[in-house]
Amino acid sequence: MKIVASTDRAFVSALKKVVSRARMQGAAVERTVRTLLQAVERGGDAAVLRYTKQFDKVALKASELKVTSEEIKDAYHRIRKDEGDALRFAAQRIAAFHERQRTKTWMYQDGEATLGQVVTPIDAVGLYVPGGKAVYPSTVLMSAIPAKVAGVSRIVMCTPPQKDGINPYLLVAADIAGVTDIFRVGGVQAVGALAFGTKSIPKVDKIVGPGNIYVATAKRLLYGTVGVDMVAGPSELLVVADGDAKPAHVAADLLCEAEHDEDAQVWLVTTSASLAKNVGRLLEQQLRGLQREKIAAKSVARHSVAFVVTTMDEAIEVANQIAPEHLTLSVDQPFDYLEKIRHAGALFLGRYTPPSVADYIAGPNHVLPTGGTAKFFSALSVLDYLKVSNIVHYTKEELSKVKDHLIRFAHIEGFDAHAKSAQSRFA
């Protein structure tokens, strides 16, 4: 882990590099994605099957794209009872949290005018669940349960096919969460199929979920054809720690995020130079023997930085500039700093809140903004699956009270038909 102190010349440039980390999709990636999307729009199932064979090395027929109810039932027999219990426990916690995000239709009277908002769920959503280097039943729960709570009637899930079938944990999680249809298709072809619809895969109104650079680019290019939640990049964790933080805990938390993939990014901001040194040493020790040691080691070697600052206020300001996906506050009184933190996808407060508890069972959503987009994006929530339509109702009497202002406004903007639409009511 590279250590940079605020007194070092390299501090500003090192911080700037992290702050501007958002991956820019190259022209070659975008050209490839556009080509694939156009092929899926024109070719439907045939294109999806062709690319599935080309990229996933799995040959399927159109009739085999959709997972059957028998496969889902069989998946329950392929996992242990205690594993199923863990999935159900997490699902209950996630549902309980997201139930509190519900919002309702409301109206109020302004004179004789009735104003308000009507809240309705999206009809159909598509969940993209990655399936390459790891298996993510937690992402299935985090994506599907808020949709279910919101009242979405059709929840369609796509996940890359495997030669030995879809991982049973994904199927069980999808069943627990109330997913309507599951399709064994991944990559750009899955995103395109969800956006355009094919004979086998229904068109949806919004696509959510993380993916690699090609999936992220596809979502970005399709925004407007369908809704999307966010364009997510590699996983991130920033730990803000004082001198009393336990180096072993900090190192373990950083590795917890680094093991996602080689491009995962982890950072430490601390007021203690000795803590930074100890964390760097322990990272090397704790890496040894991890199941994903090589992946985590590459992540740490490529991206990890420890920033040593003078005060906690400086540490918080650095955190706000970075705007991380996950932010851990390893201090004794974390709530004292809560109002000072402006930008973070999720906050893990105190010494005993490991990132993993939030990833799996705490309840808040773990689909979060990355690459500094926490400055303007939020965590996936029930609100992502709802639409809000404004309500306006005027009586003749109420319209007569405001029509002169309305007409003046129309003339200011040069739209006389706007004025006449109001005047016609009193002709």
Automatic annotation (TrEMBL):
Cofactor note: Binds 1 zinc ion per subunit.
Residues given in the record as Zn(2+) binding sites: E257, H260, D359, H418
Pathway: Amino-acid biosynthesis; L-histidine biosynthesis; L-histidine from 5-phospho-alpha-D-ribose 1-diphosphate: step 9/9
Biological process terms in GO annotation: L-histidine biosynthetic process
Keywords, alphabetical: Amino-acid biosynthesis, Histidine biosynthesis, Metal-binding, NAD, Oxidoreductase, Zinc
InterPro entries with a match to the protein in the record: Ald_DH/histidinol_DH (IPR016161), Histidinol_DH_monofunct (IPR022695), Hstdl_DH (IPR012131)
Pfam family, one: Histidinol_dh
Binding site for NAD(+): Y128, Q189, N212
This protein's GO CC annotations: cytosol
GO terms of molecular function: histidinol dehydrogenase activity; NAD binding; zinc ion binding
Signal peptide region: none
Required cofactor(s): Zn(2+)
Catalytic activity annotation: L-histidinol + 2 NAD(+) + H2O = L-histidine + 2 NADH + 3 H(+)
E.C. number(s) listed in UniProt: 1.1.1.23
UniProt-annotated catalytic positions: E325, H326
Tagged with keyword Zinc: yes
CDD domains membership: Histidinol_dh (cd06572)
Family named by the database record: Belongs to the histidinol dehydrogenase family.
Protein function: Catalyzes the sequential NAD-dependent oxidations of L-histidinol to L-histidinaldehyde and then to L-histidine.
Protein name (database record): Histidinol dehydrogenase
Organism in which the protein naturally occurs: Nitrospira japonica
Phylogenetic lineage: Bacteria, Pseudomonadati, Nitrospirota, Nitrospiria, Nitrospirales
This protein's encoding gene: hisD
